[in-house]
Amino acid sequence: MTRIEYTRYTLRLEPTARAARSSEAPPEDDWSGAAAHERGADPAALDYLHPEAVAIISALQPAGWQEADGGDTLTFWLADGEEAGEAAGPALARLGALGALEVSRERPGWEDAWRRFHKPRVVGRLYVRPPWYPARADLLDVVVEAGLAFGTGGHASTRQCLEEIQTISPGPLLDLGSGSGIVSFAALRLGFVPVWGVDIDPVAVHAAAGNAALNELSPTFLVGDATAPGYALPAADTVVANIALKPILRLGRRFALGADGGAPELRPAHLLLAGLLVEQGEQAAAAFPDYVAASRRDDGTWLMLHLTRVP
Q1: Is 309 helix (H, G, I), strand (E, B) or coil?
Q2: Nearest to 47 by CA among 76, 75, 67, 77
């Protein structure tokens, strides 16, 4: 079997002034609560510091990239031959015009090295593990092959959601921002049924479908923007929205339509809002006036709110 070789591209961008950063509009479809952020004039904003560079890289390498230096350094990888694609040359040239684009070859086998950092995690009754670790008979098994780009359950917002759904009586569940599918699989293991996952990123949905096969589970994964008023969503007793502040606010507007009969499917008994910074909690909760806070989890940086519907 021929091993694929990779080239690493590191884009070093000049730090922008604080005022300029706060005025940049983030991508409207940013569902990533873990995006590099800058607290500017709007303390609730969670913006990419260099949205033009991020847009080019995400089109060139949809599997993802890494951020460092607070978002001023972006790193991504291309397999051999991809740099010669029709769109790759102009995209790399545009990135080179934005900053210093460093190019280096990776050593053979580098793409497997991340596995030593992907360890099993016990989250309440759940055992979240990569497939190269065995299951545990005393815990509910959730297998995640994260690949190069998708979550492994290590991020605080994911753990908070996994912990909180274990406090809710099982029923139909809707997982918004489903990513690699961890919450969807955990919900099925805990007895929730049916379970749907929705993500705006088709690459994430493809990864989740592969993880579903590993788990021998069958949630329904959908590609789409669940915050868009015209996007049909199934009815569910529990909605988990691990999607960051701005899309959560758009989701709140959909709930407001539901109050007038426009979207009756969005009237769950339980609503979990995650991917939030601690200081964003009040604004997120205010977007759902028909709900009250039942509980919250935060680690000092990341916040999850559990809202329940007012009778």
Answers
A1: strand
A2: 67
Give just the sign of the alpha carbon dihedral 138, 139, 143, 144: negative
Cβ-proximal residues to 66 (8 Å cutoff; 6+ apart), any chain? 74, 75, 76
User: What is the per-residue pLDDT for 146?
Assistant: 61
Which CATH number describes the domain made up of 6-112?
3.30.70
* Domain covering 156-309 assigned CATH 3.40.50.300 in the classification: no
How would you classify the pairing of strands 126-129 and 121-123? antiparallel
Instruction: Quote the pTM value.
Output: 0.70
195-199 and 220-223 as β-strands: parallel, antiparallel, unpaired? Answer: parallel
Maximal C-alpha separation, the chain? 61
Q: Which residues contact 75 (CB under 8 A, 6 or more apart)?
A: 8, 9, 10, 11, 65, 66, 67, 68
Q: Strand order of the sheet with strand 121-123?
A: 121-123, 126-129, 140-143
Instruction: Please calculate the CA angle 132-135-138 and round it to the nearest 5 degrees.
Output: 160
DSSP string, 23-90: HSPPPTT---TTS-----SSTT----SSHHHHHHHHHH-TT--EEEGGGTEEEEEEETTGGGSTTHHH
Each residue's pLDDT tens digit, 21-68: 443 444 444 454 333 333 333 333 345 788 899 889 988 887 677 888
Phi (first) and psi of residue 42, to 5 degrees? -95, 105
Domain ranges of the chain: 6-112, 156-309
Rounded to whole angstroms, the Cα distance separating 143 from 127 reads: 8
